[in-house]
User: Which sequence fits this backbone?
């Protein structure tokens, strides 16, 4: 019982720190197997098992592969490790994924069957707001409602515009490293546009957008290009930000931006 409690404590700690990991849980066994239903293991992104145990080499490779894939795309998986005869009886082979189940072969003498549920535990996707315009404030409020963490990057005097945020940074010194998906919205409204936009384009992000007209964005991109900003990064900039919903108010524009972020996140669309 103590061991299981330790795993849950470690999981809670990693989630609080925003560290990604996967949890493998044995949900069913048939015949003789080393691990029994309920056994758990905590798997790190480097493929190592940090805590717990789900059996020996018979299941290990298939589970670690499933954990790697789950951490890559954020989808849980069910792995069924069966002896070759069992796979043949179902008309499937090792490596096949069917009806949400990934099949693997158990070549161990025990010839047992194990079904293991592999679930990725990823940090919340992050929306970074550069600037403290009414649109930025509205995006922060709406993004939190959809499960995003928010980081506000703005001068100290403007931080008061945001009632809530998960993280606050004075100025535009954006964090370089992040283990989850992140989406950057620059809405400086003429106050530090170049500085904020250059900072936004200097980090790795799934989405970088500028709240402003195409004409203004083009002028800023020209200035940044002259400063030596990588053309490939400039090409990633979405401007104006958001889906074309015809929004006018800050709340309507924020809705179009958060909708676009969700589309990029869920559909893997680099550009809309």
Assistant:
């Amino acid at each position: 019982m103590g061991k299981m409690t330790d795993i849950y404590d470690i999981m809670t700690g990693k989630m609080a720190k925003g560290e990604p990991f996967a949890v493998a849980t044995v949900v069913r066994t048939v015949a003789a197997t080393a691990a029994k239903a309920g056994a758990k293991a905590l798997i790190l992104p480097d493929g190592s098992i940090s805590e717990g145990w789900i059996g020996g080499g018979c299941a290990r490779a298939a589970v670690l592969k499933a954990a790697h894939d789950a951490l890559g795309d954020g989808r849980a998986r069910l792995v069924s490790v069966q002896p070759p005869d069992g796979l043949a009886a179902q008309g499937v082979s090792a490596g096949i994924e069917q009806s949400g189940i990934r099949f693997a072969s158990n070549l161990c003498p025990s010839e047992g069957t194990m079904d293991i549920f592999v679930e990725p535990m990823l940090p919340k996707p992050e929306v970074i707001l550069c600037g403290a315009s009414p649109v930025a404030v509205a995006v922060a409020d709406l993004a939190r409602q959809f499960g995003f963490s928010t980081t506000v990057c703005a001068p100290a005097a403007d931080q008061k515009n945001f009632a809530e945020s998960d993280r606050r940074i004075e100025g535009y010194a954006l964090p370089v490293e992040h283990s989850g998906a992140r989406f950057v919205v620059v809405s400086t409204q003429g106050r530090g546009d170049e500085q904020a936009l250059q900072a936004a384009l200097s980090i790795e992000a799934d989405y970088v957008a500028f709240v402003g007209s195409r004409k203004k964005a083009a002028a800023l991109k020209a200035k940044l290009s002259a400063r030596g900003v990588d053309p490939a990064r400039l090409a990633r900039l979405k401007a104006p930000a958001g889906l074309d919903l015809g929004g006018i108010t800050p709340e309507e524009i924020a809705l179009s931006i958060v909708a676009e972020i969700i589309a990029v996140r869920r559909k893997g669309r680099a550009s809309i």
Notes: Helices lie at 2-17, 57-73, 84-90, 134-145, 193-202, 214-226, 231-236, 250-267. The longest strand covers residues 21-30.
